[in-house]
Amino acid sequence: MDHDPHLLVEGMIISSYAIGATKSYIYIRGEFVYGARRLEEAIQEAYSKGFLGKNIMGSGFDHDMYVHRGFGAYICGEETALLESIEGYRAQPRKKPPFPALAGLYGKPTVINNVETLSCIPAIIEKGPAWFSKMGPEKSPGPKIFGVSGHVKKPGLYELPMGTTARDLIYNHCGGMLFDNRPLKAFIPGGVSAPMLLPQDLDTPLDFDSLAAKGTMLGSGAVIVMDTSTCMVKTSYIVNRFFSHESCGKCTPCRDGTPWLTRVLKRIEHGDGRPGDVELLEGLCANIFGRTFCPLGDGAVMALRGALKHFKAEFQYHIDHKKCMVS
Prior knowledge:
Blueprint: H1 5-19, E1 23-29, H2 33-48, E2 64-70, H3 79-86, H4 115-118, H5 121-127, H6 129-133, E3 143-150, E4 156-161, H7 166-173, E5 184-188, H8 208-213, E6 222-227, H9 232-246, H10 252-269, H11 277-288, H12 295-321
Parallel strand pairs: 1-2, 3-6
Antiparallel strand pairs: 3-4, 5-6
Helix pairs in contact: 9-10, 9-12, 10-11, 10-12, 11-12
């Protein structure tokens, strides 16, 4: 969106023509001011060239495109909450069914796709599906943008074939660990809701099926790399504080459960943990997971369960010794 907004605009025009949609919306966080401006400029240029508007290139097809700036709510990653936001309502998930494909934006049939997917369409049209399918594994072909942060020498965005291993991404493309004397402790492969993996999982291909087999997910492709200086209790507290803040408040398990998780994690991290707190966390996770209106609450639970699965001893050490095992 920042560097080649016309790629997205073209992909959306092609997709809209294929399904007969006369209007499309690009939903973008309000904080992404530069990206929104670039998209708005690209859309106006497309109108001026006759690629948008009435009777596009004499085809008889009409299409209008809009940029909608949101308020940065994480819940708008849920498709129906996004629709509510565009319509001017509070961003909360809708009951499904009906699904957006039947009754979506303003009650009309609506297709919702990630801009990363839509941006691939012009190249597929130009070079063919066989060319696209040669990249990556058979069931998850194509490129993927990985956003790498944490303890690596070269954090940033990397567009690589789907199925690239975590080892290749971290040690070849990102230059390896930030400090040579601090080896890898764990990495999160797909945003904070994805359960973390360990160094022995470095050769796992970063694709949907391979990560699912490991009990985690590709998600957004946001890879977080953590070295041995990382406190998993503090990490879990920060992650759950985020989910608690971003909960829309619609359903009780998420609205009340995520702040409860955060309070327990905070006291453990601050040296005020109590005997039984680990079991309390596990019980709360069991009562939240699968009982929320949308996957946000499940995401908080999956992240914490992943940390407890691999690093429960760190949590117990915090409780027993009132200090961090790592620092």
